[in-house]
Structure of Gfo/Idh/MocA family oxidoreductase:
Amino acid sequence: PMLRVAIMGLGSYGSRVAEALLSCRAAKLVGVISGTPSKVKEWQAKYNIPEKNCYNYENFDRIKDNQDIDAVYVITPNALHKDQSIRVAKAGKHVICEKPMAVNAVEAQQMVDACKKANVKLLIGYRMHFEPKTLEIVRMRNAGDFGKILFFQGLSGFKIGDPGEWRLNKQLAGGGAMMDIGIYSINGARYMVGEDPVWVTAQEVKTDPIKFKEGVDETITFQLGFANGALASCLSTYAMNNLDRFFLNGEKGFAELLPATGYGPIKGHTHLGELTQPHVTHQTLQMDEMSAIILKGKKPLVPVDGEEGVKDMKIVDAIFEAVKTGKKVDLKL
Ligand code: NAD
């Protein structure tokens, strides 16, 4: 069966997902939700989308009556995700929502609750959860190849350009680098270590307070402690380009991904040798797998459901609290 998807938010990432969907075997783009009529026309022509599957932000609740759409993929600025996802759920459609799923854990939990109530699935756009080299490391870890896991390092950053873009606007982004790119290290720490952290400490520096206003973080280092004794040490920044590295070490050996989360190809090796899994367009793989999760109840090796997203948002909240107070913050995930 085909998962019939409508994309909400026809921006740069929405366009990437639309292109990737062309190569999917189990998912296809059938509709759009946009506030810009000219973009809708363009996408209709490019992807052969019928007029009846085109909506705007005022009328998209009517998608409820559209039998030709199974799921809506929300790809708008972060602060809009919560309300939009809840409206999609109330319209009875499955929700795929981009990361960060919301701007804090309270909102994220509201999304989970709304989807549960509406009896629809909620999945977060964590494309790395389907990436073959990443999954090989998870498989090797589960098989004991690294021994008892004791350390993870996650470095996530890029130098943000346009000072006018929504990513630097607290109202729309909910924060700065942490929400946008640091979340890869947060999420990565959990799937690489294979556990949830129990405490957080964090430190912030801001070299450009004009570009990065109050509530918009530029660079934060943070540490996560795990119940089994493992530690993670991570960096989130909007000030450095080409910063994208995961490193996992256990009693027996290591795995490194460099780059770890870019659009690929991902490169990696372990103490046992190179990782040779072939590159597949992340979003193509993601959408085919999400189709299987939604339509066939498939259980992925690394989960991508709303509850997973809530955990990441709880860690984001705790990191901001640790930065503010300078204290260790306990986590209950
Ligand atoms: P973008 O600015 O290119 O696109 C955002 C879209 O939302 C635009 O088409 C814009 O018109 C629309 N929009 C609707 N309402 C808006 C409003 N009130 N204000 C501003 N824009 C509005 O951004 P993007 O890079 O496509 O990011 C969108 C989402 O996708 C973000 O949540 C981001 O974190 C996520 N994203 C995920 C990945 C990934 O690899 N998973 C990569 C990039 C972006």
